[in-house]
Amino acid sequence: MSEGIAARDLTRPDYLQYGTTVRSWLTTTDHKRIGILYAVAITFFFFLGAAAMALVRADLVTPSADLITNDQYNRAFTLHGIIMVWFFLVPSIPTTLGNFLLPMMLGTKDLAFPRLNLLSWYLFIGGGLLTLFALLAGGVDTGWTFYTPFSTLYSNSHVLLAALGVFVVGFSSIATGVNFIASTHLLRAKGLTWMRLPLFVWAMYTTSLVMVLATPVLSMSLLLVVAERAFGLPIFDPRSGGDPLLFQHLFWFYSHPAVYIMVLPAFGVVSEIITCEARRRIFGYQFMVYAMVVIAVIGFMVWGHHMFVSGQSAFASMVFSFLSFVIAVPSAIKVFNWTGTLYRGQVRFSASMLYALGFVGLFTLGGLTGLFLASVPLDVHLTDTYFVVAHFHYIMVGGSVSAFFGGLHFWWPKITGRMYSERLAQFAAVSMFFGFNFTFFPQFVMGYMGMPRRYHVYPPEFQPWHVMSSVGAVVLGFAYLWPIFYLGWSLVKGEKAPDNPHGSTSLEWQTTSPPPRENFDRLPVVDAGPYKYHPWHSTPDEVEQSHRPQLP
Amino acid sequence: MLPDASTLAPRIDHLLWLLIGLSGAIVLLVVALIIGFSIKYRRGSTAKRGQLPGWLARDVEIGWTAAIFFVAIFLFWFAATTETSQYEVPKDAMEVHVVAKQWMWKLEHPNGRREINALHIPVGVPVRLVMTSQDVIHSFFVPAFRIKQDVLPGRYTETWFQATRPGTYHLLCAEYCGTDHSQMTGGIVVMPRADYARWSEGTDDTGTLAQQGARLFQRLGCTGCHGNSARVRAPSLNGVYGRMQPMNDGGFRRADEQYLHDSIVRPQKDVVAGYQPVMPSYQGIASEGDIILLIAYLKSPDGGDVQ
């Protein structure tokens, strides 16, 4: 045990005991508590979005419309998309694990702007309420993409409310991004140089850059939608000389980088889990860092691959196709490096490790099917079919959601101070992997066969694939609900977590579980890179300290 | 399974199988390595472990980075060159006009025959589709032909195919377009040429698209200015289609379908050099269907040549 922990004052309260009233939570500027506020909010939105999809998948069991009408169906999948993208996936890892862990990994007391952090949560809730209100008022039927001129001139639903909701939540993203960037630049512990940062910090940093640069474009395009729909400004309406394709360019200029907002944090989480659970330094640390930076930069230059059949010029399509193949390279490097990290390790099959390994497999498949869609002639056939649906769910659900669950389990003891049943959690991880493949793999096949997305009624030859997918969704639903029970049990009856149950070398574990209000009793000093696991001859439990407490 | 019923389909499937083979190999490699390493190096196993020499890690890293980069470039090149022919419509292609609206497909043959949510075409003949929408964005998708093209309001987009197998194939709208999006479907009926010839004879007496366009040209009053004996100074439209037109603000524009369409609904947009922008807009007066007729008329040999 390090000196810092031994010397601590055992009577001081941890961050959870630091105030227990509702008011103390709602006015907190503690990054850890804000992380928990976000976790509560996104959990609510996650299950709301999942419920909408449960309705859709139930209806798709038969080719005809039986449970709901066409309009209800369109509102259900739109709700699913809007909620899952902006109210779950984009904020998921950064605002919960990121908020909680970033200052601790940097070895500091809080983020650079603690009050801005709280404001971002209120913006998130404000945007969420607007969107919920749109839902209660009758829903939105534009799809999460808000394509014009349908959204501006033809839709009879609450487009304005929903667009404003997403507009507001965008500012919450920007606030979080600014906060993370400033914190990483300014608040690193003594000795924590850029090339000693844990990959999770790099992931948060690159994600924040993308958030800050891309989100304003989304805000602007949504304002243009509002301007045309509410005030009749001719922007996208071709009858007045507008251009409907302009919206798609603006929208994907945000929404393609948004895919990286959703998946870069997952890279960070998985890198932390795999190194710790395999007791191994990350293979090719520098390449992992550069890969994330390159992905964040090139991610801005590939938006046109969403528009190969839109009427965009053939030359533009070729350039976007080329860049989309190029961005596959850093992603592939990451997969190989995670695999290489296992080599000569001490692999432990904990639940979080199972989630992380599942992530690598599903992300690989999701990434490779991206190559199909980057090929122009093949994309012409596959775009707007279930193939695309399956592809991006492999990245965002198989990838990001697996990583989120992995991270949740991995840091659970630190966040709550309690242990959970490892066996029940392993069962959840394995069910998620199989349930996910069962749900989404059939969608690749029916997509190639020509099943378009966003179809309520469909030709009967696709029924067997839809039935498989819906049955898989039941398994997947179970895998999502199951952790509520054992994690809930852990909160109430779980045994107390030790300070560093996984034997991690990372800074956030070198304090009590749960951490005190100011994270560390003494600010740490760092004198080596991350992941100093497994020196020659070491036993798995041995951890080489990469930092020492600062002497007074 | 999905039929391959166009000249394009088997070539797309080749590309697909190449990518499936390659991806399959990579997935197998990654999964085998993950499972292999996880088992061999599970905690407590006696497998030999140790620090990797730094140079080895770096060389492996550079090696696979380069390898992946070359594979990516190769795949781009292969995919990009697979279907360049798709960008060039054969000269002798039969032309079918498509007007999409919420939630139906209207299709018009050159001989004036109209169809709703169905398209009859002969096997082995290239067919060029010239498409526009009356309202929102739709997408013309025929899985059996492996073609898809968005259909935009205020704009002509085109695609082409050549069917190779008689049969009936799905026509689907692939771009979400509102309430009945999933019911905006139809059938493409590919017929042997003789059958098609018989089918297309059954035209009604309204005449070909060009003939209907000629009548419309009179009725809408186009002849008042564009006729040969008109007093108002407006360019004659005889043989205008496909010509390079000098513009008032400098430069040239080819008088293609898009240009003719825009000149009818937004005449002030590109005015031919030497003329005043006096033409009123026909937006709302001439429907998208009417404009197709007018263009068909202007494309015919004696189109625009009237008093």
From TrEMBL, chain A:
Regions of biased composition (Polar residues) lie at 502-512
Q: Where in the cell is it found?
A: Membrane
| Family, similarity comment | Belongs to the heme-copper respiratory oxidase family.
Where in this chain does the record put each Cytochrome oxidase subunit I profile domain?
25-527
**PROSITE patterns, per database record:** COX1, COX1_CUB
What Gene Ontology cellular component terms go with this record? Answer: membrane
Q: What is this protein called?
A: Cytochrome c oxidase subunit 1
Annotated spans, Disordered: 500-552
Gene3D superfamilies, sorted:
Cytochrome c oxidase-like, subunit I domain (1.20.210.10)
Automatic annotation (TrEMBL), chain B:
- Tell me where the transmembrane regions lie: 15-39, 60-80
Q: Which residues form the Cytochrome oxidase subunit II copper A binding domain?
A: 91-202
Locate the coiled-coil region(s) and give their ranges.
Answer: none
The record gives the membrane topology as: Multi-pass membrane protein
Which keywords has UniProt assigned to this entry?
A: Copper, Electron transport, Heme, Iron, Membrane, Metal-binding, Respiratory chain, Translocase, Transmembrane, Transmembrane helix, Transport
Q: Name one GO biological process term.
A: ATP synthesis coupled electron transport
Which Gene Ontology CC terms are recorded? membrane
Q: What would be an example GO MF term here? A: cytochrome-c oxidase activity
Give all residue intervals belonging to the Cytochrome c domain: 208-302
- In which family does this protein belong, per the annotation? Belongs to the cytochrome c oxidase subunit 2 family.
- What is the protein's name according to its record? cytochrome-c oxidase
